[in-house]
Amino acid sequence: KEKEFFARIKKNRVDPSVSSVGNPVPDFYGEKISSVKGYRQWLKDQRAFNKKRVSFV
Length: 57
Fold this sequence. Notes:
The protein has about 55 residues and is an all-alpha fold. It has one domain. The protein is about 55% helix and about 0% strand. The protein contains two helices and no strands. The protein has helices spanning about 1-10, 35-55. The termini are far apart.
């Protein structure tokens, strides 16, 4: 079960090489995820980072 979860984290996390001072990487390893609600928020944060990266680059 944990392997599957970490595989999802790995698949959905952002590329840290494109971070900047104005757009830092949100919780790259998913360390702050403690519930399903937290996981959903983590996914939203990852998508928001990618959206900002695409629109500002």
